[in-house]
Amino acid sequence: MAQGALAHIALLVRDLDKAVEDWTRILTVLDPDQLLEPPVIMPRFGPESDPVRWATFICPGGAEIQLVEPLGEGGRAQHLAKHGECVDHIAFVHPDPAAAARALDAAGVEVTSTELATDDRLPWQGWTFVTEDAAHGARVEIAYPYVAVDGHWEPPADAGQA
Predict the structure, then answer these.
(1) Is residue 110 part of a domain?
(2) For residue range 120-133, what is the model confidence (pLDDT) as tens digits?
(3) Which among 140, 129, 143 has a CA at the least distance from the CA of 94?
(4) How many domains does the chain have?
(5) Among the listed residues 130, 133, 156, the one whose alpha carbon sits nearest the alpha carbon of residue 145
(6) pTM
(7) In which domain, by residue range, is 84 found?
(8) What's the rounded Cα separation, in Å, for the pair 70 and 16?
(9) For residue 153, which of 73, 123, 132, 146 is within the disulfide window of CB 3.0 to 4.6 Å?
(10) Which residues pair with 70 in a beta bridge?
(11) 10 Å Cβ neighbour count for 84?
(12) CA-to-CA distance for 137 and 87, rounded, in angstroms?
């Protein structure tokens, strides 16, 4: 479960299975608590124009590691081809991500949208991003809080989102 506002750091990878294997070895030494539960795996997520599959290691006391593999030839696949494996985004959770995006926009921080994107695979979740330019190279995701339950994400019990 993501604790606090910094939820996860997502890395764009070429081969999700290999990345999970490699990060399992890394976390075995550096943060074994992230291996107490199996990673949450989403076999397909995102818009059809830029689908991905991802795995998120569950961190009981801090920020999580998420690995994202592009499926198809969308924007993330193009970014991966051009730049190689790299940080895809840094995610913060907020009880009202749309309000946070509006506040950032009002403060002069460029966001991709003040409206939240959604996906039918996680219908309760919503997110938007601070742009790469505004965040000096990495997109910053703003999303509703989440918890890992039996290998998938759910809203926290005290969540007020729709």
Answers:
(1) yes
(2) 989 999 999 999 99
(3) 143
(4) 1
(5) 156
(6) 0.85
(7) 6-154
(8) 9
(9) 146
(10) 52
(11) 10
(12) 9
